Hints:
Blueprint: E1 5-13, H1 19-27, E2 45-51, E3 54-60, H2 69-83, E4 88-94, H3 105-109, E5 117-122, H4 133-143, E6 148-151, H5 160-170, H6 188-203, E7 213-221, E8 228-236, H7 239-246, H8 251-268, E9 272-280, H9 288-293
Helix pairs in contact: 6-8
Bound molecules: guanosine-5'-triphosphate and magnesium ion (MG).
Amino acid sequence: MATFRAGFVCLFGRPNVGKSTLLNRLVGEKLAIVSPRPQTTRTRITGIKNGPGWQVVFVDTPGLTEGGGPLGEFMVKTVHRSLEEVDLVCLLVPATAAPGEMDEGPLKVLAGFRGPVFCCLTKADLVRPKTRLLPLIEAYRRQYPFKEVLPISAVDGTNCDRLLELAVEVLPEHPAYFPPDTLTDQPETFFVAEVVREKIFQFTHQEIPYACAVRVEELTERQGEARLYIRASIFVEQVSQRGILIGRGGAMLKKIGSTARRDLEAFFGIPVYLELKVEVRRNWRRDARALRELGFKSTS
Ligand SMILES: Nc1nc2c(ncn2[C@@H]2O[C@H](COP(=O)(O)OP(=O)(O)OP(=O)(O)O)[C@@H](O)[C@H]2O)c(=O)[nH]1
Ligand SMILES: [Mg+2]
């Protein structure tokens, strides 16, 4: 009987190195939101890729940081938990860094991990000439016994297929964890909330996107109508932020809603009705109870 390989591969690294962009590229679907700003991802996000004789469950994680209050602690805990019981870790580091700027923080976190670790030098498309990558590759090789060190670009696709192949090779023989048509194990409501959050990142500035949490209150396909009806709340920390998010005459909220709706329609393939409202939940990022109510629950 032919063997089947399956396992979990954690995408791990500092904020903004391109973990979510790589997850989307490897899975071939936009599952995780992306922004040019650090600390976009707040939770563990899976993306499942199937091939002949194998299944890889990629696990995108929040960027590794220190501090940041109760929400920050939740995010760091999420990173640590995501590293438990995975079959392979891909440490993502920016290819644009100089060898002298190498960051040892993530390597320290990996100290207890027994499995294979790949080092992916991300955003390699930004480095020219490519020979500039060699000293960095050498520097990382000296730092940790990586099984592979490879430059990648999730934007132009450099080495992404190669990374997938190498990942499959190290996975154990194991039956598939999910049915072959499964893309992720997050519920649709989570995905919808993230799309709204991505638009907040896109259209608002400074502290605003960080002060927002989105919760889907209702997601229904109404009988007899090929249409998704979605009601979601955006929670902000202060009254002034509510005003910014709503905008003059409601213009900002409308812009967030209509761009999110377009993405959701493309993803679900049916018309979407999206109703957004903005609520103030004072200092929710520092409030353990509010965090739980807004969906920041520990998974184990
Ligand atoms: N040029 C280039 N830009 C990239 C690449 N991968 C990601 N980016 C950009 O880098 C920024 C951060 O990407 P994300 O995927 O959100 O990074 P992340 O590591 O998930 O960030 P956090 O969720 O904040 O930890 C975005 O502006 C991306 O478009 C790449 O391969 N090349
Ligand atoms: Mg991310």
